[in-house]
Give the backbone structure.
Amino acid sequence: MLRGLKLFSKTSGLCPNASKSAVYCHGMLESDVNRVLETSSYTRSYLPFRYLGIPIFSKKISAAECTSILEKMTGKIRLWSTRNLSYMGRATLINSVLISIHSYWAQLMILPKKLLRDVEALCRSFLWKGSSDTHSHGLIAWDHLCLSKTAGGLGFRRILDWNEAAIGKYVWDIAKKKDNLFVKWINSVYIANRSWWDYSCPLDCSWYWKRIVAVKERFKHKVSLGSFLSQQYSIKRGLELMSVPGSKVSWNKFVWDRLITPKHRFIMWLVMWERLNTKDRIIKYNSSLDSICLLCGEADECIEHLFFQCLYSRKCLSAIKNWLNWHTQSINLVRLLKWISHAKASSIYKSMLMTILAATVYHIWRARNDVL
Ligand SMILES: [Zn+2]
C-alpha cells in the first residue's frame, strides 16, 4: 500500500501531508492495524467521514445519516409555502427541484428505502397541501403520479427505480469490463473468472455489493447481456429497461394540450381521474356534511352534476356555446370532449375548444370553492 502511495507521489508529484492524512480500517485484526500505523506513521481515524459531502461508511448507510437531504427539501418547501402556488406550479417544482435534490447521493449509492419513502411523502405533502408538515394522503396515489402523462400520470420520477437505474451504471461498467480501479477491484475480489451476467454473490459479502448484484438481476430479467451492452448506458435508458410502461389513457390529449393554461390542466386532470374533491367524495369520510350543490342548491354535488348538469354551469356552457357558435346539445363534459376529438376541424380549432372548455371547468370549480 505504501509502495503504491510512493509510486503515486513519484509519478504525479503530489505528496500526502502526514498531519492531514489518516488511515481508516475496517474488518482487520487490531495487530494488523497497529502494524500499518507503525510503518506508515499516519494516525488512525474512524468511519464514517464525509467525502465531497457524502458520508463514507463501511456498512449500509442508515436513513438517519441522510437527513440532510430531507432538511434541504423541507427548507425549499418552507420558502415556497409562503407563495400562493397552483397545483401545477407545485408539480413543476417537485419534478424540477425537489426530486433532484437527492439525485447526487442516489447516483453514488443505494439509498435506504425509508429515506426514499420520506422523500416521496414530503413531495406528496407539498403537492397536495403546499407544506411539508402534513403527511396526509393525496387525491391520487403517488404511483399513479409517476406514470407518464400519456399513461395518465404527471411524469414524476419514481425515485426508488431511479436510484437503481443510477446504480445500473456500475452494472454496465462491470459488464463492459471498463478500465477503472473499481471494476478491476470487483473483478479480482468478487467475480474472478466467472461470468458477470450469471454471477450470484456470496452470503457474507458487503451489503452494497449485494445491492449492485440485485440491480444486475433486475436488468438480467429484462434484457440479454448483448442488448444491455449494445448502447451507451444512461439513467434514462436504465429506467426504460426497468419499468413497465402504463397503458395509454384516451384523455391525455384533452388535458395536456399545450394551449391549455397549466393550472387549468391540473383541474382537468383531476376531473378525468374523477378525483376532484366534490361533496359526494367528501361525504364518504365526513358524514355530517350535506351533499347539496353549492352553486344551485338543487341537486347532489358530483363531477357529472358540476360539468354541466348544474343550472349555474349549464348557463356558463350555454354562453360559451353561443359565443363560439358551437352547435351541440350535449351537457356532459366527457361527451363534449369526445365531440371535439371526432369533429371534422383543424387541430388548432380543436385545441382552442379544449382550452376554452378547460378554462370553463376551472372557473366553475373556483366559483364553487368561493362559495365554501
Ligand atoms: Zn348545482
In short: The CA atoms of residues 208 and 302 lie 51 Å apart. The chain has 19 helices and four strands. The chain has a mean pLDDT of 90. The longest strand covers residues 22-24.
